[in-house]
Amino acid sequence: MEPIRAVGAMSGTSLDGVDAAEIWTDGETIARFGASSYRAYSETERSVIRAALGRWPGEPTVAEAAEVVETAHARLLAPYAQADLVGFHGQTLAHDPDARRTHQAGDGGVLAQVLGRPVVWDFRTADVALGGQGAPLAPAFHHACARWIGAQAPLAFLNLGGVGNLTWVDPAKTDMAEDRALLAFDTGPANAPINDLCMDWLGQPFDRDGALALEGEVHPGLVAELLRHPYFYKMPPKSLDRDAFRTAGAAIDALPPSHAAATWVAVIAASVRHGLTQMPQPPDRLLVTGGGRLNPAILDALTAALPCPVRPVEDVGLDGDMLEAQAFAYLAVRVRRGLPTSFPDTTGVSAQVGGGQVSLPDGMVDRLSTVARQDPRRRVRHAQQDR
Ligand SMILES: Nc1ncnc2c1ncn2[C@@H]1O[C@H](COP(=O)(O)OP(=O)(O)OP(=O)(O)O)[C@@H](O)[C@H]1O
Ligand SMILES: CC(=O)N[C@H]1[C@@H]2OC[C@@H](O2)[C@@H](O)[C@@H]1O[C@H](C)C(=O)O
């Protein structure tokens, strides 16, 4: 199948803004990467979104937040007029997979009308409805990235956002739906506790370039104690809330700020090291993406703690700022082709599932969907048909 030119957009948990990035793909192989851009939320926009965090559709302030998200995306995505398809993640406001619900603000139907192009959105609902965690969804894209960089041996991607998550990929298994082609799970805390202590002590949103942590000393006893948390004994796939270690980490937060930052950095490295022991086979390298890769204290600690080389994804020609936006462009194409987007080994879902609604602008004929219906590989339950 000819590659589709798709643009993906992601509004992450740090609420800084929206990333957009284009790729050409058939939903299996990456043909090439395209342009990318970023639009920061204004303080006013951010406060509207923040007011709606933890709320569900129909509750106060959610409609206002959705409008902010839709408007920001419409502005950022308008210049991508050549893209044939849009993958729109939206902004997660609430996520409760145990109650089988998740909520990303922003209506893809509205965006389809405004942009005049098909929009794939609501990527997580089908997965949680089938008992999955609804996250992470990027692993399918990591599998494609591993093949794009020509990896021969199993490797791992580590995303360092608010929490850390690892994807183990066996590139020899070219069909990602194959058993043991992928394994993904959250490793433990990442930037969130460091950001919180920087805000509390310094009035800064994060520890720029690891300056605070690099001044401090690690408290090894508290690292060992945190690593005894029951989460580390659970088998993957497994996932975490942003603040899951707030109580367990109170003793670390009580240290002087530089020691606390250094100790959290050591916790990040120790939890990733532990995560590697839960993988089917040791990866030959760890490729780091997400904002935490820009913190030298974290990269140094990972390098010292891990048995394999640790490198930012830029080393293999990928873009660590745009990987998530690219992932939702890629996933949009998979949804349009009826291919699965999550698997029992990535989200714990009971069966592989293609999650995502497709919204078309008025009057557009659904050519791609016809192709998907004829595709013999279309063997997954699809969210669109279940509605
Ligand atoms: N120069 C830097 N030095 C240290 N840390 C940094 C730097 N740049 C970014 N970060 C960290 O990365 C975080 C942002 O990471 P990222 O953009 O991956 O988050 P996100 O996409 O919003 O999160 P998630 O992936 O959890 O949705 C910041 O909050 C900060 O902690
Ligand atoms: C529910 C939700 O929005 N989860 C996000 C969040 O941000 C990072 C991490 O937590 C990851 O699990 C996920 O996003 C990425 C893009 C994912 O699904 O792979």
TrEMBL record:
Keywords: ATP-binding, Carbohydrate metabolism, Kinase, Nucleotide-binding, Transferase
Leader sequence segment: none
This enzyme's EC code(s): 2.7.1.170
GO molecular function, one term: kinase activity
Pfam family, one: AnmK
General function of this protein: Catalyzes the specific phosphorylation of 1,6-anhydro-N-acetylmuramic acid (anhMurNAc) with the simultaneous cleavage of the 1,6-anhydro ring, generating MurNAc-6-P. Is required for the utilization of anhMurNAc either imported from the medium or derived from its own cell wall murein, and thus plays a role in cell wall recycling.
Family: Belongs to the anhydro-N-acetylmuramic acid kinase family.
Protein name: Anhydro-N-acetylmuramic acid kinase
Organism of provenance: Jannaschia pagri
